[in-house]
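In this section we walk through a basic example: taking a raw amino acid sequence and producing a predicted 3D structure, encoded as discrete structure tokens. The instruction is simple. Fold the sequence below.
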Amino acid sequence: MHVRRVRAGLKGWGGVGAMAVVCALALTFVLLLPLVRQHHDDGVGLGGPGLATGDQMRAGNCTDPEKQTLPPSGADGATIEAVKKRTGEKRKLIVGVDQNSYRWGYRDPNNQGSALEGFDIDLVHRIAQDILGDPDAVQFKAIPTNERIPAIKDGRVDMIVRTMTINCDRLKDVAFSAPYFKTGQQVLAPKSSTITGYNSTLAGKKICTAASSTAYTKLDEDKKAGRLASSVDISTTVPNQLDCLVRLQLGEVDAVVTDGALAASQAAQDPTVELKGAPFTTEYYGVAMRQDADDLVRRVNQILVGYSGNGWQASYDTWLSATLGKDATASRPPAPQYLRTS
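The resulting token sequence is shown next.
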């Protein structure tokens, strides 16, 4: 119920009596809602496919966040239809991306027009091709790391494709596709550093992370739990992950903690730094969308099924093999698992 709209329309009704009617209607709606949801689990009706079931699951106990996504479907729902109804130059998919992550989403000044390119950008073009029939029907918006979720919730973008880890906390605010990449947190530090990995050698060191990143969350939790030395300084946070590399180059911090996939790309940009130690978490990147955009989530999941077998490897070879190695086995996510919607 859009209560504000209803109240606005009550100005000439006579106040208390009118509000009593509205309250009665609202109560009726609440009582009938479970029955309505039962009849829409097949993907037809309110807010797109499987809305009630998907939201209930995402809001419940979350132990495997990468599995909290809806089954694939090629059907158009309210969200996709709204995108297709955009006219003229505005008939584009609006996607939040990074423009500073080397080989993921970045602008190469050596290329004509400095168009955005990278592994994430390839995926965006594939999604646009499927939904709008044109891989270039995309309006890219550069979104900082700490603005990814607000950009979705505020309606500034249709989706975020920006090395965004699927986790339980984020599922409270947005919906994710199935995973399209596997990675883990790693330490990046100067080659000359005494730091050897995510261990006691970080004691007394100053670490940089991106604000609102899973790296910062992990460091903060481990410090509070005593798994990380209390002398580790994690106070340096930045809006964009690449800013950490700049801080490291300037000597303002001793190390960076970020996804290994991103850290490898940063090491490729600066030969004086390197990855220290093995990944110490397992994380999966997903496409983030609004929680009520179930038809879009399902469509992206269907696209990913095809992309996994035709497109993913070619994109990996083009953008990531030079930094992560030719064998992509460690970077491929497992076979997707979906929520049960009936």
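Looking at the output, two observations stand out. The CA atoms of residues 102 and 266 lie 7 Å apart. The longest strand covers residues 185-190. In the next section we compare this with other chains.
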